[in-house]
Prior knowledge:
The complex is a heterodimer.
Chain A: H1 2-30, H2 33-55, E1 58-59, H3 63-73, H4 76-84, H5 86-96, E2 98-113, E3 118-131, E4 137-150, E5 153-161
Antiparallel strand pairs in A: 1-2, 2-3, 3-4, 4-5
Helix pairs in contact in A: 2-3
Chain B: H1 2-6, H2 11-23, H3 25-29, H4 32-40, H5 47-56, H6 59-64, H7 66-69, H8 73-77, H9 80-87, H10 99-124, H11 134-152, E1 154-155, H12 159-169, H13 173-192, E2 194-209, E3 212-225, E4 230-245, E5 248-257, H14 261-269
Antiparallel strand pairs in B: 1-2, 2-3, 3-4, 4-5
Helix pairs in contact in B: 4-5, 11-12, 13-14
Amino acid sequence: MRIFTVIAAVLAVLTFGYAAYFGVAWYSASHSSESSFAAARDDALRSGQVGITNFLTLDYKKVDEDLQRWLNSSTGELRAEIDKDKDSRKKQLVDAKSATTSKVLDAAITELDDRAGTATMIAVVESTVTPDNGQKVTKINRYLTKLTRTDDGWKLSQLGPLRAGV
Amino acid sequence: MPPSRRRPIPTPPVGGRPKVAGLHRRASTSDEPAEAVEAVETVEAAVPEVAEEAEELKAPTAVEWTPPATKQPKPSKSDPEGDQKADEPDEPASRPAWLLPVALLVVAVLLGGLGTFFLFKSRSVTYDAALVDSATTSAVNGQVREAVEKSFSYNFADVESTEKAARELLTGKALCQYNAVFGPVKQVAPQQKLVVTVRVVSSAVSSLKNGHATVLVFADQVTTRTTDNQSGGGTAMLRVSAVDQGGRWKIDNMEMFGATAEQNQQLQNC
């Protein structure tokens, strides 16, 4: 009987070592600086895609809602800009009498400074503009946006189309 | 004779105490254990609990004893231990000898399972190296930019350099796609004396894993017809796949955003 106890004890010790080794391996792998940088990149990319979609989606029938969403998705320079021209922008959108929906086809982060909390992203966006009484038009455009990390996650701090010859 | 003397002496206190206990439970509990221990035949851990229950009813003492008994069913589940039990029937009476090895085996099996879980978890922690591996990322980015610019820029006076670039910098499916996209241009180029200049405006590595990379490329194209100096421009958005071939990243697949249905058809046929 003692031999069984010894064998079982040895097995228990060995499996403890086995579990401990891979427990540490898992922990260190998932907490390395590389994987946290990769996580920050994915986070910025996801937020950037959502932010761009928010900014390029609008409906003249609910401009207030759209402008509020723009403010919520932006920070810094971009937010200040929208806030400043809020009224003229609103009038402009209402007069245009059209609704736009957008979809990000592909996007990638060109630069990421995890410590400073800034990133730059490029995106291919398909936008469909539907005028009040007219045929809808679908276009594919390219955008460059700068992202800044806030307490509330990554937000757009700059956004502009990349036109030809830039 | 001695036992008969001893018995009468304890019994009166036994009969007397419960009455007191019924009135003042807290005070009496300290005395009760002595009684309980006698009744249940020297048990260690459960004594205080048993004593409390014993005040009200004697039946609960039996109920209290079921939890320790549950330790016995566990080993019976593991069949290999059944043999050992048969070999040495003497020991189970006090503390079963098979209890320790069985417990250790159970622990070993649990730890083994946990370790395997950690093993798979640690293996599955893979992250995309895009930007994380900054040296490789910029190498991929630069080489893909160069490949796109060189193989899509075209000068009617120097056809050879474009074709050489395409052969060297593209591979597999991308060569076929290149011919599909650039074939029509090549046909009209000599007679119109075309100069096509492609410049990558911006590009970013979106994925970098196991020697494969995906790059999003924004390019501008300026086409000049030198016969009448007419220029036209356009923009292009490409998703390019690149593969590491002996230290050189070569383009092996291209997808165009905003391409015409005809162009997409040609690309897919490759």
